[in-house]
Amino acid sequence: MTLDAVLDHIDANLPQAVDRLMGLLRIPSISTDPAYAADCDRAADWLVAELASLGFEAAKHVTPGHPMVVAHGGEGGPHLLFYGHYDVQPVDPLDLWHRDPFDPAVEETPKGPVIRARGASDDKGQLMTFVEAMRAWKAVTGRLPGRLTVFLEGEEESGSPSLVPFLRAHAADLRADLAVICDTGLFEDTVPAIITMLRGLAKVEFTLQGPDKDLHSGMYGGAAINPLRVMTRILGGLHDDQGRVTVPGFYDDVDELPEPIRAQWQGLAFDHAKFLGDVGLSVPAGEADRTPLEMIWSRPTAEINGLWGGYTGAGFKTVLPAQAHAKVSFRLVSRQDPEKILASFQNWIRAQLPADCSVTFHDPEGSPAGHMQIDHPAFDLARAALTDEWGRAAAYVGCGGSIPIAGWFKTELGMDALLIGFGRDDDRIHSPNEKYDVACFHKGIRSWARFLARIHG
Amino acid sequence: MTLDAVLDHIDANLPQAVDRLMGLLRIPSISTDPAYAADCDRAADWLVAELASLGFEAAKHVTPGHPMVVAHGGEGGPHLLFYGHYDVQPVDPLDLWHRDPFDPAVEETPKGPVIRARGASDDKGQLMTFVEAMRAWKAVTGRLPGRLTVFLEGEEESGSPSLVPFLRAHAADLRADLAVICDTGLFEDTVPAIITMLRGLAKVEFTLQGPDKDLHSGMYGGAAINPLRVMTRILGGLHDDQGRVTVPGFYDDVDELPEPIRAQWQGLAFDHAKFLGDVGLSVPAGEADRTPLEMIWSRPTAEINGLWGGYTGAGFKTVLPAQAHAKVSFRLVSRQDPEKILASFQNWIRAQLPADCSVTFHDPEGSPAGHMQIDHPAFDLARAALTDEWGRAAAYVGCGGSIPIAGWFKTELGMDALLIGFGRDDDRIHSPNEKYDVACFHKGIRSWARFLARIHG
Predict the structure, then answer these.
(1) Which among A134, A425, B258, B363 is least surrounded, fewest beta carbons within 10 Å?
(2) ipTM of the complex in this document
(3) What class is the A200-254+300-367 domain?
(4) Residues of A in contact with B96 (CB under 8 A)
């Protein structure tokens, strides 16, 4: 009965919930760019105020990076810690957006209304599904449904440098019976999903230096080494002609998928053609002997995320540049060790440098892949709640992205994590014109209300 | 006697000549960037006024691009056409300049005073050597030494798109007995040089397109093709492990150096170690079986002048980009045809594209290599004039750069060209902190005064 009233309240107050989300979306909390540090701080303040208004004891904690928001509230039942992040990705290339990324609006589309803005899906819209579910409980019952901690960070899109030290320093304050993380997606547009495997991530930027200054290619071309030539030769060999990564030892700690999981994945109605077709592609680009689902969920990758050097402006400049730069990242699976992979990659580059060319590496960092404890009782409760809301059994799936927080909750606080989210594949997260479907936001809020009823009911 | 008076006048008025050059250097006439079009126009006006003050009938001619300056003056003797260019290269990366590139100053250095500014050497300082020589003749004798045409363009650093149509439309106005081009360098710091071979240039920009939007490497990494992976694989194969360019047919029209030229070059005291050491290098990077002098004067090259794609800002963004871009140019020699080379390069790229990746080429253009007529009588006169000034016999040398105007003067106007310049290898043309030695400027003016005395005397 209470749950029905909570769900009705959610339905009746959806417009106000969308308006609140837009308030958060207007804050350009880009964590990777120091120019937006004050905006990250403002987003944290905004969330502290929201949580305090729900009866939480909420605080903003200063870190060497962007602040952490921690809020405690409610009593009884299993103690849940809810995690999300208020920071967002950069917005370039800005000219591909059809509206200001920080001036959100509800837009009508053939698939229904969407909230358009940077962070609409990743992760501001998603974290607000949980906040709005709690708000509805509080409005209907006068109290929070059970003991809850909310923990929101502002560095997820920039490697979370302050996170592990913060977890260690505030372990007693943060430890709960289960962590709940809302930063993932549906399996298909209308099929809810619970993540059971997460890929890890290792990344590094590096600079190749040839001549000690930019040169005129007429005067020096042919005799002086061009670092872009070295860069393309080395990174052009990062994959072999079967799509396998060539860094020595890269696959040493990669396990084959257990047969039951492989069988379950084969049973999922994953539309490979549509997955690639949605982004203008048709041929899977990964290892030749793997399915696309394996490529994105259970196989490691190497990607060049950025590469630049020489003259990149309008017109032409026949320069022979002094430097070439690249940002390379690896998605990791199984037991792959980020430090070992990064060390092997750096050695692999050094071994290929010609005389007269040197390399400098910047900020190597990484986190391993994660595997969830699906025998934790909350998994069955969550699955049941999701099935109630969506009318479809929730899928246990892998996740190609890296959400290192799940691993850190386990290693630092001994907490298992449950990853549920309501994003869609076409949300364009990290890309221009990011959006979050109003339907996902709405049913996401309802899903959390049902989940809270099952956990704390 | 007259020549001595002219040389004395030059010596006595050097500070004023430097001041005038600084006036021209203050105009940021970057031709490749449309934002500086008004500045290019202003530079043309400045030169018209200077030439008019010397008694020339000078005019600025509007073109679809930047204006041409044409000035006629003097009477008698062989009719010389003097060519230079008033446009300059872009200045990026601006943070590597130790002063504003358009706020010129004379700086003291261990090798003597230099004029520091974009264009100080290429080509404003050089073109002003000729103007100042004429000024001295006019000041001492009351008239120009003989019949002279001055022809200055503003598009040399951006491919001279208006030049050939202008030569055709104004052929009668521009045809002279000999073209004199001042846009090259000394052989060594104190050895004058006359260019007898010039490399040609072919260049093209292109874009590889993979997905139709930027993707999240967590969601799509491994399954979607990354155009930076394709770009590095293709351009990483542009040279083989012997340093040879792999584009099919690239060497078909490359002739071996005639034995007498090779012998003469071997007699030149070219310090390979110093040439590379000046820019922080030690190992010649070109074809393994060629000398550095061949690499830069008589062998063709392929260079990546610019390459970019993905996230290139501060921090990290795990994007899988939709596009990758490159600017590639070729230095051409012998009978290499720019159109044939560019077509072969484009076909070579297309043939290597995977499914799901397309290419668009932008603005392919080029000009062939040039070979001077050293049996023209002016060559001996020029050599004698240079030897008088520098106390060293002028070297007949090749030039790694591309000065297509020499070829166009021949094909469009039937005019031979004499290329003499006073730049030094360490002038940093096209690079940050470009400079022109005051000594080069001074002796360059004196060299032209001596040359005019020999030609018109």
Answers:
(1) B258
(2) 0.78
(3) alpha beta
(4) 213-214
